Amino acid sequence: MTLPFDSVITIEEAPVEVIRSVSPSKYLAAKRCPLSFIASKSNIWQFNPATAAAIVGTVIHRLIEWSGKSNDNEITSGQAEAKFDELLAAAEAKLAAHPVNRRLVPLSVTDSRFPEKRHSAIKASVRGPKQKRSDKPNYSSGKTLFMYEEGLMSKDGLVYGEIDKLVDGPHGLTIYDKKTCHVLDDEGYVKDEYRMQLLLYAGLVYEDMGKVADRLVLVDRDDRETDIRFEFQEVLDAMTVASRWLTALNKKIQLTPSVGQLLYLAQPSQDACRFCPARVACPAYWNARKELNEEWPDDVEFVVDSFLRLGNGGMLVKSRPLSLGRTIRVFPEFIEYQPALGLIEAGSRIRVTDVKTTGLQRTLTKRSVVYIIKS
Ligand code: SF4
After folding, report:
1. Whole-model pTM?
2. How many domains are there within the chain?
3. Rounded to whole angstroms, how far apart are CA atoms 46 and 126?
4. Residues whose beta carbon lies within 6 Å of some atom of ligand 1
5. Whose CA is nearest to atom 2 of ligand 1?
6. In this structure, is residue 364 part of a structural domain?
7. Atom of ligand 1 nearest to the CA of 276
8. Residue 195 lies in a domain
9. How far apart, in Å, are the Cα atoms of 210 and each of 150, 206, 213, 216?
10. Are 284 and 332 in contact (CB under 8 A)?
């Protein structure tokens, strides 16, 4: 029998290699849990269920990247719209071919903010003529250079990133980064990871282009611009610390180049694990759930004792030991998107993400995915 892709997971020991570079957009998250960074760089344990918002975010990112890298002199609104629709169709075709993720099609329905996101993405990818990095702005004539998706590397090669937009002109050099979400935290401050990302971009501009940025600007999901206040010394410090951090991490990887031996680098926390693609498979996450009292994602793990097909087409799964009386109820409308349910048997170890808990009973939600764990 061909097992449905991604529904039956074997949690394997796997080799990992030293990491060539860290990108400014991933740096703080990588520091928050180095194991997550290593797993994603080595493409190990990447099972987290897809969400509509994440897929639309990827489409937007690819659109902006396409606009910046395109050899066309300018990108008009019509061209950007056509490209967005092409990227969306490709993303939906991929989702539709997947037994679990096909429930996310069409994304215009499953992502509640789809119309605003599409509008904002198209606006952000419309651009005028761009210039090469080697061009020089002509300050006396007021000529401004526009660069898009410029790939820049630190002198030691350990930090690499592509910058959405660079504007160099009579008013100085400005670095822009477009986000598909809010850029401020609950207290009204720029989110730490975004501030660090822009500081590192400024460091890359300095080390790779020999220029000092005057402004660092975040553009949020509603096209509002937020200036980041900074001192140039912070830029230099951020670059030094990022390079040292990756060098130290690579030394650990060289000493024990396998994911199982690097489990000690895991730093499970409710914020880091919630969005981590390794969450379903990560032993550190499942152990931490038992030991630390945090607001963990609503996931469950248990051994199947028995299961019952219900008259309405749904299903009831009972967990072992039966004395705990735990059950998972699956409403009929979710059955077709859970291929693992067709494969479970007494004794199967399963993990289910994003359930709703009422007393001892769990119910699958629209976002849930059932995985059978083989290890
Ligand atoms: S699930 Fe949590 S602990 Fe495990 S790698 Fe991801 S962030 Fe780290």
Report:
1. 0.90
2. 1
3. 33
4. 33, 35-36, 39, 266, 268, 272-273, 276, 278-279, 282, 284-285
5. 273
6. yes
7. 6
8. no
9. 14, 5, 10, 16
10. no
